[in-house]
Amino acid sequence: MRLEVRVGSAAVELRSLQGWLRADPEVRRSATVEVQGGVPGPGEMGTGLDVLQLVTGNGWSAASFVLAVVAWRQSRPQRPRVEIRRGDTVVVLMDCSQEEIERAVRALDAADPDEGGGR
Length: 119
Description:
Blueprint: E1 2-7, H1 11-23, H2 25-30, E2 31-36, E3 51-56, H3 62-75, E4 82-86, E5 89-93, H4 98-110
Antiparallel strand pairs: 1-3, 1-4, 2-3, 4-5
Helix pairs in contact: 1-3, 3-4
């Protein structure tokens, strides 16, 4: 299964999140984490590095992943908007309230794992 994460507009933030996730034992155990150029939308020019891609295996936990992203976001001086895409499901973390976190976990758990090039 593949997830894509977009963070604000700075590639440096993606690199920071990549390092954070690679250091998290739960994420490291169940996913590979790579920064890549994303597919530009209609009328958009692509940038060099604008998406963090996670390819997950059977041990993937939406809750562990979302909590790792929330912890990273809270460590940032400017707390960027984080968009997570799994297939056709898109989750946005803005304030990381308990309700937003629970909604994100439910949505990612419920997303069809075969959408978007699952593994």
